[in-house]
Design brief:
This is Hsp70 family protein. With 422 residues, this protein is α+β, with helices and mostly antiparallel strands. The protein contains 13 helices and 20 strands.
Length: 422
C-alpha cells in the first residue's frame, strides 16, 4: 500500500488539505478542480442535505431555504464551542459542525487518492494552528488546540500532530531557495496573523529537527474577518440603525447587535425570536424608525451572511479597484459605495497591531528589522495594499516574496507530515 499522509489547514475563511504520498507533497482538489475550499457549511432545509464551500455559499445566496455557517475556526477556545444553533428544528453543537467539516475534507481527500490509484484510509495528519488561538489566555489557547485535535480524531484520524501555520509556510517557501536566507514569514489569515523568523536554506531543508532554525515567533488574533467587521461597521451598519437614538432621552442603540451582525461566526446567534421582539418593541421610539425596520428585515430574512459576503467581496475588489458598489438585500435595495480609502481607514489600527507583533518577533529572534533579507507573504490579507505596504516599510532591506496566498500553509503541513510520519 502506498505511504501517504496529509497536512490540513483548517482556516477561518478558507481551508486546504495537502497530501504527501510516495515522497511528494501536493495540494488536493477539494471542490471541483479547486484546491481551496471556503470554510462554509450550509444546511439545506428543502432537501435536508449538507453542502460545503462554494456550493454552500451559492445555495445560500440563491435563496435556498436553510442555514449557513462560516468562520467556524473562530469558535475554538471560546465559550461558543459549547453553544448549539438551531438547524432544521434541531439543536446542533458547534463542535459537531466543525467535525462534519473536517470529515468532509478527509473523505474528499480519500476519494482523490482512490481516483489516482492509492485507495485506502487517510489516518495521519498534521493540523495547522495559529501561534495564538486566543490572545493573552494560555488556558484557552491549549483548550482550542485540544478541541481541534479531538475533532480530527473523532473523524477517523488516528495519528494527529499540530504545527504552527507560519512554520509550515516557511517549510513550503524553503523548497524554492538556492541559498541561505534570514526570512520573516508573514501569514495573515482570516482570523489570526502569525509571524516567524527563520534561517532557511536547501541544506537546512534536509534536516528533520528544525527547532534551532526558528529564531522567533509571534502572533495576534487579527485577520481578514476583523478588517471585514470594521469595514462593515463603518460603511454598512449606519444604513441599518447603528447611529439611531432611542426614546425621549435619546439613548444610543445597543452596539453589540451591529458588531455581531458584522462578525461572521456570531451572525447565526442573532436569529432569535427575542432579538426580533426587542427590535419591534423599540422601533417606534427611534429617531429614525425606518433604519430599524431595515435591521428587522435583515434578521427576519437571515441576510446577515449575505451582507458580510458583500463586504468581504468589496474589500477584496478594492485591492485593485479604487471604488466599488453593492446593494444591501432590502426592499427597496440600498446602495453602498466603498473606496480604497475606506479600506485603508478600516485596517489602520489593526495594522499598527500587526507591526507591533512583528516587532515582538524580531525582538524574540534578537535581530533588527533591517537584518531581515526576505519577507514571505501568505494569507489573503497580504493582498491589501495598505497592510502589505506598512509591513514592507517596517523591513527596509527585505525582499518581498509573494507566496501561494492560500496554499502555502497546507503544503508545508504535508511536508512536515512526511517528516513526522515517514
Amino acid at each position: 500500500m502506498a505511504t501517504r499522509y496529509c497536512g490540513l489547514d483548517f482556516g477561518t475563511s478558507n481551508s486546504t488539505l495537502a497530501l504527501s504520498a510516495d515522497g511528494r507533497s501536493f495540494l488536493c482538489p477539494l471542490e471541483g478542480d479547486s484546491v481551496l475550499l471556503p470554510s462554509a457549511v450550509f444546511y439545506d432545509a428543502e432537501d435536508h442535505s449538507v453542502r460545503f464551500g462554494r456550493d454552500a455559499i451559492r445555495n445560500y445566496v440563491e435563496g435556498v431555504e436553510g442555514r449557513l455557517l462560516r468562520a467556524l475556526k473562530s469558535v475554538l477556545g471560546s465559550t461558543l464551542i459549547e453553544e448549539t444553533t438551531l438547524i432544521q428544528r434541531k439543536r446542533v453543537a458547534m463542535r459537531a459542525i466543525i467535525g462534519m467539516f473536517i470529515r468532509h475534507l478527509k473523505r474528499t481527500a480519500e476519494a482523490h487518492l482512490a481516483a489516482i490509484g492509492m485507495p485506502g484510509p487517510l489516518d495521519s495528519v498534521v493540523l495547522g494552528r495559529p501561534v495564538h488561538f486566543v490572545d493573552g489566555d494560555e488556558e484557552a489557547d491549549r483548550r482550542a488546540e485540544a478541541e481541534l485535535v479531538a475533532a480530527a480524531k473523532a473523524e477517523g484520524f488516528r495519528h494527529v500532530e499540530t504545527q504552527l501555520e507560519p512554520i509550515a509556510a516557511a517549510l513550503a517557501y524553503e523548497q524554492s531557495l538556492d541559498r541561505e536566507e534570514l526570512s520573516l514569514i508573514v501569514d495573515l489569515g482570516g482570523g489570526t496573523s502569525d509571524f516567524v523568523i527563520a534561517r532557511l536554506s536547501p541544506e537546512r531543508a534536509r534536516q528533520t529537527d528544525r527547532a534551532a532554525d526558528i529564531l522567533g515567533r509571534s502572533g495576534v488574533h487579527i485577520g481578514g474577518t476583523d478588517f471585514d467587521r470594521r469595514l462593515s461597521i463603518d460603511k454598512v451598519m449606519p444604513y441599518l440603525g447603528y447611529d439611531v437614538l432611542l426614546g425621549e432621552k435619546r439613548l444610543p442603540m445597543p452596539q453589540h447587535l451591529f458588531h455581531d451582525l458584522a462578525t461572521w461566526h456570531k451572525i447565526p446567534f442573532l436569529y432569535t425570536a427575542q432579538n426580533l421582539h426587542y427590535l419591534r418593541s423599540i422601533v417606534l421610539t427611534a429617531d429614525r424608525p425606518e433604519l430599524l425596520r431595515r435591521l428587522i428585515d435583515v434578521l427576519a430574512h437571515r441576510n446577515g451572511h449575505r451582507i458580510a459576503g458583500e463586504v468581504e467581496a468589496a474589500k477584496i475588489a478594492l485591492s485593485d479597484a479604487a471604488r466599488v458598489s453593492f446593494a444591501l438585500p432590502l426592499e427597496p435595495p440600498v446602495a453602498v459605495d466603498m473606496t480604497r480609502a475606506d479600506v485603508d481607514r478600516a485596517v489602520h489600527d489593526d495594522t499598527t497591531r500587526l507591526i507591533a507583533a512583528i516587532a515582538r518577533c524580531t525582538a524574540a529572534a534578537s535581530v533588527k528589522p533591517e537584518q531581515i533579507q526576505s519577507v514571505f507573504l501568505t494569507g489573503g490579507s497580504t493582498a491589501i495594499p495598505a497592510v502589505r505596504d506598512r509591513i514592507l516599510g517596517h523591513l527596509p532591506n527585505a525582499r518581498a516574496v509573494p507566496g501561494d496566498m492560500f496554499g502555502s500553509v497546507g503544503l508545508g503541513l504535508a511536508i512536515d507530515a512526511q517528516r513526522r510520519f515517514g
